[in-house]
Amino acid sequence: MVVDTPIARDGVIRGDFVGNDGYSAMREMVRGLVACGHRRIGSIRVFAGVYSSDQRFRGVVDQLSADGLPLVPELHRVIENVPLHQQGRSRIRELMELPERPTAVICTHDAIALNVFDELRKMGRGISEDVWLSGFDDQFFAEALHFSSVRQPLRQIGRRAVEILLEKQPVRRQEFLPCELKIR
To answer: Which has fewest Cβ within 10 Å: 56, 115, 167, 170?
Structure first.
């Protein structure tokens, strides 16, 4: 049984898994941004090949398409081989220096969003005034810093994982539980 971050190869999960439905959560986040008038929505994520990050990004891309918005590659940045405390910093600078910068940036986890928030502050930019920011995990600092995030159903994930283990079924199971948007 794997909880939270599945063991995947070529996008296929191996073995039993219980985790969050980051794909649907990110689609919902993009729908909300579009409903608020955002049309230039960017993203910052960790390197390709991390299943949860890939699924979250796919949710962003699929919803942009569903809403009739083009995927503008320059608005979507990938972090490669950077220590956690630096993740997102150079990428937000690149995005904010574009001639047509994004009006919203979605980060695939809150640690990236925290670094982006700090870097925006250093640049003299404000959350909401200059760019709308969101993360994923709804860490304690997201509310204090007033950026939106996605809350995972951690207790339900743990409970469901234990239930599956106790059932001892020979069939492999993969369950993705819905998340909750925290719009700030």
So the answer is: 170
Residues 6+ apart with CB under 8 A from 6: 13, 14, 15, 17, 19, 51, 52, 174
Pick left, alpha or beta for residue 167 (phi over 0 → left; psi -120 to 50 → alpha; otherwise beta).
alpha
CATH superfamily placement of domain 23-152: Response regulator (3.40.50.2300)
**172 vs 90, residue with greater confidence:** 90
Beta strands 8-9; 104-107: pairing state: unpaired
Q: Which two tokens stand for residue 134?
A: 């969101």
- What is the mean predicted confidence (pLDDT) over 78-97? 94
- DSSP-derived 3-state class of residue 55: helix
Residue 7: per-residue pLDDT:
58
What does the domain layout of the chain look like in residue ranges? 23-152
Model pTM score: 0.89
